[in-house]
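Quick question about two entries, pasted in order.
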Amino acid sequence: MNRLIVAVLLLLCTPLLADNLNQLKTHAWYSGDVNCELATAPAVETFQLDASTYIFRQNKCLHYEAPFLYLFLGDKQAVLLDTGAIESAEKMPLASHIKNIMSAYYQSGKIPTLMVLHSHNHSDHVAGDKQFIAAGFANVIGAKRENVMQFANLWHWPAGQFEFDLGNRRLMLYPTPGHQHGAISVYDQQTQILYTGDTFYPGRLYVRDWLQFKASIAKLVSITQQHPVRGLLGAHIEIDRHGHEFEVGAKFHHNEAFLPLSVDDLKDLASKITHLDKPREVKFKNFRVVPVVQGR
């Protein structure tokens, strides 16, 4: 696509992005039901952030984790961050849903290969991989740390970063271990949003390696100082709008909190844990740091 046309399209999309970002800050996601057997909500909820960025949430009645997934469309390539908690294409037709979105966006009859990345290697973020492998239009990068190191040529993990061009759109991948040793965060220059998986989100921040987690939070703060960041989007919501936590495994979240966290939230976390050499639970309004047994 001609660069001038792309520039014009981005200018036209800027108001859409700003409006939708504001909507996202107060968007009430489908958060389950008191009687899931009678619920009729779709298997996946879709929020269009701008013309080429989509946020998906898996139905909480189908899996209590209800993770968020992110799709980035460029001129030459597309990236999906995480495949969620449900393997079955019958229960959660995620691959076909994304293929339909891509077909409509590219309008060429031939969609580019979808690159599937993962925020980390836990089951509620990788379960849908088999759908994309079977669908034949995706290149699924393994979620283990070794897979990410090889893909991004990050042999001094967790040092370094990896930048890749989707075609007039750049994503930057950063190792951010602590929750899980292969965890990553992704900065998107187009939306100016930092996507942080289970490292930072409105809920329980489970920490399995305290020193690495501290370093990763410091790294995220540094990223916000190097790049404009409109907000941070993680992979779950586990609290209500008053900061009260929902019970683990709950399939209904009444008055659920909103998804975006702010740079100030991140800086507050960093300032509280910087001088803590040993794992310690720390409570904030919008999240709670929870040290757990290492090794998972």
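Here is the second entry:
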Amino acid sequence: MKKVFVSGCFDLFHSGHVQFLQTAARYGRLYVSVGSDATVRELKGRLPIYSQRERLRLVRAVRWVAEAFVASGSGVLDFADDLKRVRPDRFVVNADGHAPAKEELCRSLGIEYLVLPRRPGRGMVRRSTTALVAQARVPFRLDLAGGWLDQPWVSRIAPGPVITVSIEPSPEFAGRSGMAGSTRTKAIRLWGMELPEGDPEETARVLFAYDNPPGAEFVSGSQDALGIVLPGANRLYYAGGYWPEQIDTLRDAETLAWLQRRLRLLPLGARPAGYSVLDRVDLRKAWVESLAWAAEACWQAIARHDAVALGEAVTAGFSAQCAMFPRMTNPAIRQEIDRVRRRAHGVKITGAGGGGYLILVTDDDVPGTLPVTIRTEPPAP
């Protein structure tokens, strides 16, 4: 019997994957290369929903699969060495998985390269992992001011608040964007497509613990978990601990609607692979105090519906962050900030910088920007 080889990430395993494997197996004995967790992160800008061990087990459970293994390489051609080991007669991809580099590799090895149209099985809905992730109702998080104070080694120098806003997901939001995307992926892995019911702060505690298992090299700040789970806008006051000493929430519908109309996101592109904002750090007390002051001013401006003051506070907080962590920006990002600054009351970068989005505080619909929808408190049953 002829040998057939396929490769893929097979994350959020669904009916489309099963249909593809069934169709590929019609061409011979089926060998499946499953992308590693590191490869998924490299190619998609996020961790997989399920680990490589789980994904491999799911693929092996499909009755048409003769042999499955985790790819030994990385990148688009992570399967190259495995392809040479198996020496199949055919390499099969679907239309979405076609790449010239794959076709050229097969040609060089004398392997037939076959591209299948992407069709769901009879009576089945067309599925894709990208679409399923986009359909997840788990929110993203924006940090408007005070980011980094959720790290004890910062708030021990000077305590202060972090101001977060929970926003509804959008298919347009990119991975590695500084909106707590990796923590959101953990939430999807933990609970599925929606956050669980129950006390939001306790839910955030569970997510924070899952996001930072014992032995983690770097602890993600709790503003990520809290910013995702707590609806509306929140003031998280840190004073040297991983968890805030006080949480103030803003759920007023009129104020949230006002804030929502003044926030826009300008895409900058994903952070580059290997980016680390911690390569250069300068934690002068004056800068940490400026960051804390700006975050408090941001909270007060939201309460007063003062867009100018809000923009000034957001910009001041961002300036303090850049003084503390110079690698948050680069010449290209600074050029983009200069380009849009006149259209906004204030500008900052999402998360730890290096890419992602610019958050604009503005009264204008700035071309090229995306609106946000602030997640409000769910209605009582």
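Reply: Residues 285-304 form the longest helix (20 residues). The chain has a mean pLDDT of 88. Hope that helps.
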